[in-house]
Write a structure and sequence with these properties.
Largest sheet: 7 strands, mixed
Order of helices and strands: EEEEEEEEEEE
Distance between the termini: 41 Å
Strand content: over 45%
Helix content: under 10%
Structural class: mainly beta
Number of helices: 0
Low-confidence stretches: none
């Protein structure tokens, strides 16, 4: 059984920053590619970012490039999403997802073959 738990959401003014945190168990965390998704009311789920098991490969959706940064700390079994220059359109429920890829150097934002967290709400005021 794989457990994924995310946190760090909240209310922030436009232009501000938040850092989301996601922790995965069981070990080894370095065998999992990690991804962040978001879903706003009335909209489809969007793949935001992902990072390969080694951290050597990352992906960002065009809507967040230059503003968001994904990173991982294998010693803490944790992946982060640093969100800067936040905009009201970033308001959504953010979900962390883990994919077991022990021999891979890639990641995806395809919503299959993943274990999902419960979500954390991000609200950006105008």
């Amino acid at each position: 059984q794989v457990q994924v738990v995310e946190s760090g959401g909240g209310l922030v003014q436009a232009g501000g920053s938040l850092r989301l945190t996601c922790t995965v168990s069981p070990l080894p965390f370095h065998s999992y590619a990690m991804a962040w998704f978001r879903q706003a009311p009335g909209k489809e789920r969007e793949g935001v970012s992902c990072i390969s098991p080694s951290g050597g490969t990352t992906y960002y959706a065009d809507s967040v490039k230059g503003r968001f940064t994904i990173s991982r700390d294998d010693a803490k079994n944790t992946v982060y999403l640093q969100m800067n220059s936040l905009k009201p359109e970033d308001t959504a429920m953010y979900y962390c997802a883990a994919e077991y890829r022990p021999f891979s150097s890639v990641c995806t934002v395809v919503g299959t073959n993943k274990y999902w967290g419960q979500g954390t709400q991000v609200t950006v005021s105008s």
